[in-house]
Design goal:
Peroxisomal Thiolase, Chain A, domain 1; globular; homodimer; 10-stranded mixed sheet; two-stranded antiparallel ribbon
Chain lengths: 387, 387
């Protein structure tokens, strides 16, 4: 296997893009990534695009061919990959494998979702397709309610309070304030979170990531070739994916994301580092409980301790590790298929030392954890500066 | 790159499965493939599943995780890949790359679609998502009408008649009669095809593949390891994918599928053979014109000559090459995501010499061509006996 590096990154603003469709969003991110790499498009050998539900959101499938066409990349193969909210990271992993193996030299990995054209009820129904339709969604178990079960289970097990989770939302909005592509650049207070309406008790509106439009893209090549394009390639040290039962009711423990632990263990082994080496991590806070479970399964905090991190300042600047410098899904927004690539975008920016006012000092290793469904797919990617 | 072989194959009956969902169909094919390989499920390292539109057909996305779960494969990564009607072959190609590169040792590639739960009008609308939604489908251009434009263009250019195309349907039904998994095991006459109603002139009902449910799966491993499971592995000699414009109106020539020619040229080069070596081919006759364009772009017949093949008996047993021994999409059925894997299933069976009454004599090389949309994605796979 060859060493793989990222040489270009691009992203759109996350939020409501009334004037743009999937095509325009994906093109903007793709073109920015190609420009950032200082690359000519003809040099790209293949592409992977993560997208969950353009078929349901916009009656548009076949995004691989569509984006190859409109990015001017024909006739190279571009493949759409879907793994619910983890579609972006899974697409990235395929691109990584294609380069690591030597099958392709320069590969673009993108993610896109356009969600705001439909009403919230329809969007919620479409997103429920990430779980088990027959055994969960059809019974009325939407994603807020599935995560509410996990949050309730966690609270009962460890004595965490709703306030503990509210601190996660407050922190992530505070981070997002400095993020130019974030959907929400406003701070929120603990009181605002606590007073926001329940979506599915104990989860409140302000525990929840929003419905978003957006796209992100990155360009990968072998580390050897990377220096032709940039003096500062960021290396992909590991990429690992694991699965768990699709239905929440089949899990052994609702307060823990086993697939994340499995993927993380493999990823640390591949990168030959431990959780203590990681300076910053982008994790999947679709709901605040998601961040808490992630930082435990990733080994940053002990089981049953993760809920204290935001409250105590351990997971922000000046703490133990910076979790979600981008503002996470809560602050930056969550255009489903784009999220996994956005996580990688932010880490690359940080490791390049180009994150401006939100720069994590001496950032050397960064980790991204993108989760699909209620934890049925989990992908862990570790990036590092090259020495 | 390692040499890759297929060691197990499985398929469901194609047709209307009122009593089965995606899950049951995929499991049946997957379990048959695992059993055929004489494998224990735990030995599988990864999976890829091709599916076009389970999100729209059944409100079920995240098929990778769902199938990993229900096939008992957790926690290995299983990835859903989508490229419209070429989803199956693209999934196969990812599995091939994963094994060839040495990243994974034993990989399952499957395809599934469950289409018959909805009315024809809704299914047609969902399938239109394979084209350009904004510039084709929204204007009323369904897939029969797009292929009608190609057929009309071909007829004008080469003087082919509707009857020439009808012979393709007659041949493929005749082939399907001997195929145990085929949806239509009845012969049809030239008169029946010619007298069937127009769907989109000049395409008639009996020029068109049906709406189908079904699944297929194959198991891949390195050629070295293959002999631990079978004395007769079938080698994957080439796998190539190319793209063209997603919208038909952007093509230079409507009577030709350029992406197929590009993919085929690469595939022949990789396999180090020429079209004359191929004994049988499974091609994408979603409509009869599809088969005619495919056998030209694949180099079996000269441009402008392909329409004569079925009429003259060149593309059946005793002719130049057997095209669609499975009955093709027309005879065997077209559960979209499963079709690309079914093509490979049939070729493996033929190359093993186990195709019974439909056995192509001395079959040594077989080719599969799976097409997405009106030709925006085309995948060519070449399989061969191992000497």
């Amino acid at each position: 296997m060859r060493r793989v590096a990222i040489i270009g990154i691009g992203i759109t603003k996350f939020g409501e893009h009334w004037d743009k469709g999937i095509r325009e969003l994906a093109l903007e991110a793709g073109i920015k990534a190609i420009a950032d790499a200082g690359l000519e498009g003809e040099k790209i050998d293949a592409g992977y695009v993560g997208n969950m539900a353009a078929g349901s959101f916009a009656l548009q499938e076949h995004l691989g061919a569509m984006l190859a066409d409109h990015l001017g990349l024909n006739p190279i193969p571009v493949v759409k990959v879907e793994a619910a909210c983890a579609s972006g990271a899974v697409a990235f992993r395929q691109a990584y494998m294609a380069v690591a193996s030597g099958i392709h030299d320069i590969v673009v990995a993108g993610g896109v979702e356009k969600m705001t054209d439909l009403d919230t009820e329809t969007v919620t129904k479409i997103l429920s397709a990430a779980g088990d339709q027959e055994w969960e969604a059809f019974q009325g178990a939407t994603f807020p309610s599935l995560y509410a079960l996990m949050m309730r289970s966690y609270m009962l097990k460890y004595g965490a309070t709703e306030e503990d989770f509210a601190y996660v939302a407050v922190k992530n909005h505070r981070h997002a304030k400095n993020v130019e592509y974030a959907q929400f650049r406003n701070e929120i207070t603990l009181e605002q979170v606590m007073e926001s309406k329940y979506v599915a008790e104990p989860i409140k509106v302000l525990d929840s990531s929003p419905i978003s439009d957006g796209a992100a893209a990155v360009i990968l090549t072998s580390l050897d070739q990377a220096y032709s394009y940039t003096s500062e390639p960021i290396e992909v040290l590991a990429s690992s994916q694991a699965t768990d039962t699709i239905a929440l009711h089949d899990r052994e423990d609702l307060s823990y994301v086993k697939a994340t632990e499995i993927a993380a263990t493999k990823a640390y082994k591949q990168a030959n580092i431990t959780p203590t080496h990681i300076d910053l991590a982008e994790v999947h806070d679709a709901f605040t409980i998601g961040e808490v479970m992630a930082i435990e399964a990733l080994g940053f905090f002990e089981r049953g301790e993760g809920y204290k991190a935001a409250r105590e300042g351990w997971s922000t600047y000046g703490g133990k590790i910076v979790i979600n410098p981008s503002g996470g899904l809560k602050g930056a927004g969550h255009p489903v298929g784009a999220t996994g690539i956005k996580q990688i975008y932010e880490i690359v920016l940080q490791l390049r030392g180009k994150a401006g006012s939100r720069q994590v000092k001496n950032a050397t290793y960064g980790l991204a954890n993108n989760v699909g469904g209620s934890g049925a797919t989990s992908v862990v990617t570790i990036l590092g500066k090259v020495y």
